[in-house]
Specification:
The chain has 495 residues and is an alpha/beta fold. Among the domains are: 26-194, P-loop containing nucleotide triphosphate hydrolases (Rossmann fold); 309-398, no CATH class; 416-494, Muramoyl-pentapeptide Carboxypeptidase, domain 1 (Orthogonal Bundle), CATH 1.10.101. The protein has helices at residues 26-40, 56-66, 83-93, 109-125, 142-151, 171-177, 182-185, 202-212, 222-232, 236-252, 260-271, 281-304, 312-319, 323-331, 343-349, 361-365, 416-425, 452-464, 475-485, and strands spanning 44-50, 71-76, 129-134, 162-168, 188-194, 353-356, 370-374, 379-383, 393-398, 489-490, 493-494. A 5-stranded parallel sheet has the order 2-3-4-1-5, with helices on both faces. A 4-stranded antiparallel sheet has the order 6-9-7-8. A hairpin with a 4-residue loop joins β7 (370-374) and β8. α3 packs parallel to α4 (109-125) and α10 (236-252) crosses α11 (260-271). The termini are far apart.
Length: 495
Amino acid sequence: MYLDYFNLSRLPFSIAPDPELLYLSPSHHEALAHLNYALTAHGGLICLTGEVGMGKTTLCRAFIDQVPAHIDIAYIFNPMLSAPELLQAICSELEIPCEADSGERPLTNKQLIDRLYQSLIERYANGRKVICIIDEAQSMPAPLLEQIRLLTNLETNRDKLLTLILVGQPELQDILAQHSNRQLDQRITARFHLPAMNKKQLKPYLQHRLKQAGNENELFSRGAISAIWSGSNGIPRLINSIADRALLGTYATNQSKTTKAIAQQAIKEVIGQPRKTVARPSTYKGLVGSVLAGILILMTAFLLMSSNPQRIPFINDYFGFNPYTALAIEKGLDVDRSDLTSCDSIDKNSPYSCLMLDWTVSDLKTLNQPLAIYSGESWRVVHSNQVKTKPEQSFILWQPIEGYTSAVKPGESHALIAWVRDVLADDAAMSDWQIISPDGAGQHDFLTYYDPILAQKVAVFQQSVDLKSDRIIGLKTLLALQAKSQKVLVSGEEK
């Protein structure tokens, strides 16, 4: 209806699972990395969960579209099946004859599994790999879960013959966590929960969909974007429904850009008018008191933060003649300040060491911590965010990680990796993930092996701090991780 009006070649916000319109947010990149793990691993069971409307099916379609030619895919979109029906569906998807001869009884479970196993063996011998994706897996009846477990037993002496991917709503996590399903749950080699989109991702998401539909102009005002975010809670399907209705309203009112008022009206039409509640007077007073108390606590915490950049000018005024002392004070070191006259003196009196940096301004800003700079006349201590021009010399105090001598690349094993996992697992958008064995056989140290999924997490983190997304854990990435975590490894212990 509004396509010609906005010079669009297709509906940009269709709720159909169209891979061509897929926007890969960092979380969706992470989810796709888990699916891609099925291409490199030696079989096993992978689990992807997310709320309704998060784009799980679209991700599956995008994954299927990009699999190499030697990969055979069985896609089951309706898991409300009996065990024999599931086996028949898989055989049908893989073009394995599963119909009984004329006049004979239907094939038994054993006969179906035998035919499936024989076909998997032949494909394995020919260098082919088989992946079975079960969508809406939270709807599987209990007997089907046991059949899934038995399917994971199809293997050679070295490799699994079938990789299973379970895709479902958050209830799937609860189902797998049940004691009766512990055998199946323990066989999951990778799992990821797809979170809702954050507010910063909404504008790029809208622009991506519009561009794919043929219009690169900004058709949503800032107020409209904010309203769509509030109304959708970051759920892509709701975003699409609201945005589609908002564009229709913009067309109907003969405007060039969607306003906040139009977006709010679209939300009412898509979601409905939220019910209003009135708090009791006593509850209201208690709420006001709680809010005021919270504000006071936050203000106090803000004033007491030792690393607050606003404190640094005072430190310079008092200790500006001695950058070693100034940085030591910023780090909260309890040492004799008169002894801190050089980097060597810091090394002797604390777990910290001087790290000289010949970095660009943009790289220095990624540190997010105080540093000493020399600009021709004197040393000063500033927060890295305050650096305007590249200093002649600069250094920070840091706690070196034992054993770290050079960059760590994907596929390598290093004691540093265990700490990196811990740091990145603290991010809400990347929580709920499981360490992967590269061969599914447990021959590697899970904690220290730099696997493909962790590499994708590192790439997303590098991008978030404006570093090159090369997945290599070099010094710049290491320092950015230290700034994020405020935790470092010293002599093998976390402090």
